[in-house]
Amino acid sequence: MYDEHLADLEEKRRKMIHDARLMMIYQISSVDQEFDMNNKLVQEECLAERRELQNAMFTVIEEKRKKLKEDKDGEGELGLSTHHTRNKQRLLRKRGEILDGYLTAQQQSLSSPVISQKRKQDRAKESPSHLIGVLSHRVEEDIEADFHAMTSKRKKP
């Protein structure tokens, strides 16, 4: 009777160990599947976010290219070279008449109409790049090269 009882306990022990192993295997496989599923979702979200950021960057670059072309086309309309206007501003700054690029009301009445008209145009524009002035040809070429590099990378995947 003692041997039978010991054999029954031994059998229950083996069965419990077997069931515990099966449960452990099940839990590990379910956690692995959940991890794989979450990993795929995160990768898809990452790719979608990357595409959105690239598209946003492309639109910003396109807008800047258009504004550069407009500024380049509109540069000859003022009748003054950029050196002349920059030199005038530099002289005014040295005398302390310009504070952060804006004249007081009295100083505006004394300034030439061409320069005050240019300031009005600069204030009307939204982009800070227009406040700096027309970008050099080299900067424009750099933007073009960056744009072409980004479009070639975008077409590969």
From TrEMBL:
Main location: nucleus
Compartments it resides in: Nucleus
GO cellular component, as recorded: nucleoplasm
Pfam families documented for this protein: Sds3 (PF08598)
One of the GO BP terms on file: regulation of gene expression
Chain spans, region Disordered: 68-91, 109-133
UniProt keywords, alphabetically: Nucleus, Repressor, Transcription, Transcription regulation
Name recorded for this polypeptide: Uncharacterized protein
Species, as recorded: Mucor lusitanicus CBS 277.49
